Amino acid sequence: MSDLPNCPSCGSEYTYEDASMFVCPECAHEWSATAELDQNETAKVYRDANGNTLVDGDSVTVIKDLKVKGSSLVVKVGTKVKSIRLVDGDHDIDCKIDGIGPMKLKSEFVKKI
Predict the structure, then answer these.
(1) Helices in the chain by DSSP H: which ranges?
(2) DSSP labels for 7-19?
(3) At residue 36, what are phi and psi to the nearest 5 degrees?
(4) Within 10 Å of residue 105's Cβ, how many Cβ atoms?
(5) pTM of this prediction?
């Protein structure tokens, strides 16, 4: 039994791999092998300190005093942050905090409201 995918055009099970492409001998359809991998890839799930799933637009509360790098400001425990935006990287929350301005936070230091 072959582990190659069936043809997306005609459903044939007789596909073969040619370099980085899959080819169907019955209908001559060709498609990228990387497209198959992209479909199987799952989206990253962002979670807060309690394990709740975060999505864009959520409101969160800071659970720990956070020093703002490069200044003497501190984001205090209990600070509410509205309309977060999730981004890739080490600091995965992009937001705007009243009195401080735009910031990036780690999801491990917030909890969902």
Answers:
(1) 33-40
(2) PTTT--S--EEET
(3) -65, -40
(4) 19
(5) 0.62
DSSP string over 33-97:
HHHHHHHHPPPP-EE-TTSPEE-TT--EEE-S-EEPTTSS-EE-TT-EE-S-EE-SSSS-EEEEE
Question: What whole-number distance in Å separates Cα of residue 113 and Cα of residue 110?
Answer: 9
Contacts 24+ apart (CB under 8 A), 69-75: 73/100, 75/100, 75/103
Q: Which domains does the chain have, with CATH numbers?
A: 1-39 (2.20.25.10), 58-112 (2.30.30.40)
Instruction: Tell me the pLDDT tens digit for each residue of 57-112.
Output: 999 999 999 999 999 999 999 999 999 999 998 999 999 999 899 999 999 999 99
Q: Which residues contact 4 (CB under 8 A, 6 or more apart)?
A: 15, 16, 17, 22
